[in-house]
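Q: How would the structure tokens look for this protein?
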Amino acid sequence: MSINRREWLARLAAGGAGLLLPARRTAAAPGPVPQAAPAPSPTPEACPLALKDFQPRSMLHVAEHKVERARFPVIDIHTHLGWSKGEEISFLTTPDQILPVMDRKNVRTMVNLTGGSGAGLAQSIRTFESAAPGRFLTFTEPSWHRIAQPGYSQWQADEMERAKKAGAKGLKILKTLGLFLREGGTTGPLVKIDDPRFDPMWDACGRLGLPVAIHVSDPEAFFTPIDRFNERYDELGNHPDWSFHGRDFPSNAELLAARNRMFARHPNTRFIVLHVGNNAENLGFVSENLDRFPHHVVELGARIGELGRQPRTARRFIEKYQDRVLFGTDAVPPPDGENYPQQVFKDELYEIYYRFLETEDEYFDYAPAVVPPQGRWRIYGLGLPEPILKKVYHDNAARILGLTS
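A: Here is the predicted structure in token form.
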């Protein structure tokens, strides 16, 4: 005779310990044994639920600390206040709309990385920096649409000097380079990150003291099939166009190798490698790169979801490289930012980052969203000491950007 655990518990409640051995009791005292009605056992088959509707609520009873304001003034090195196309630019917000959030959250300065080029750059600087001096800084962008024109390499290098004179504080490289830019613009072979045509631009940035904020890859899961083994199945299912698996895309490893070859050729240029060195899942590899290339630093934007699920490793990493880690969120103002819940600009975004860095809270959401947008996990706080917090929040970025206290 066999019984399942639920039936065993029901019998135990109904008839005492003797019911633990039903066969032996039957032999000693013939007669029917009272049977409790089996408890209903709901199954997923009886209650089908789509994965997208699964919103589990944690039953953990652990300490929770809401950090409404950063312990030290913050420089957010990684935000997007507009999108550019050529020399045209469209803004996602206004200073009046975002300054109240900055004031509440102790964000002293926001760096708008996508400030455009030429006339667009000038417009970005007028719109934000002139309206609130000291609160906004602007990076310029390359003019990729000119790449096929004769003399492009030198023109783009000279453009860095013109951008600095206009007020740009650095250069932003989107993952356009390596994953989207093609020889014919949108057709032909992909242009490689270490293409020598860009060498004069990298050198000009080094000579002019313009740091280069560079993003050349995406999470490792974006380069694997969208199947049951992919930890970002939800995210890629919602955004299949974010996948770089197949077709003629290089692998994640190939992109990072090309980037490193470029780094090696330009030791006098300062690189801010965004998204924790473009490989937050592999802090060992990021550490190797930091050791190999002393002229680059990393920032945290949109990757606390990765760092927070490896809190001990992440804390050791930040402690070791405390002078080379910058605070960033990759914030995008709403409504456009609502498409990226892990980086939508709002009070809650900064509160989550501050909680992650300042507390040792356990198992909390890494984004202000009902469903974890990047992967179905939660994160743990690092509880960084104050001297390191001050460097990460402010001092490291101030040094890289050449700002005075």
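The two ends are 79 Å apart (CA to CA).

The longest strand covers residues 74-79.

Upvote if useful.
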